[in-house]
Amino acid sequence: MSDNARLIEEMRWQLKQIEDRKAENQRLLAGIAGSNHTTVVSPDRSVTVLAGPGGIVSEVRLAPEALRFDAVTLSRTITAAIREAVAAGRPPVQPQPPRPVPQAQAQPRRRPVPVDDDTPYDTVFDV
């Protein structure tokens, strides 16, 4: 096989690999889009947030009118929509039964350490 034919064959193989990966990615995305996603739209309809199972944000969409807001207003609108979508995407929290408080175990009594009285007091602070 000539060098050109080998290169063409390798390119065909690479294109096939790319097409296979693309098909797999589309399959995965279709599964994500159709599986228990929560969609939250801001009150002014400028921000849409999709959150999947567990509250994981998968997409944030901005309507053209969202770009008319100042940065602070837009960031607050996006943040509020994300928080709502995350909260809606999480499963309800089951209350945990209270854990028993372990009782303090008695500490063994320690014997006092004997003080070294051999040093006279007047030599300790000699100047």
Automatic annotation (TrEMBL):
Compositional bias segments (type: Pro residues): 92-101
Region (Disordered): 86-127
InterPro entries, per database record: YbaB-like_sf (IPR036894)
This protein's name: YbaB/EbfC family DNA-binding protein
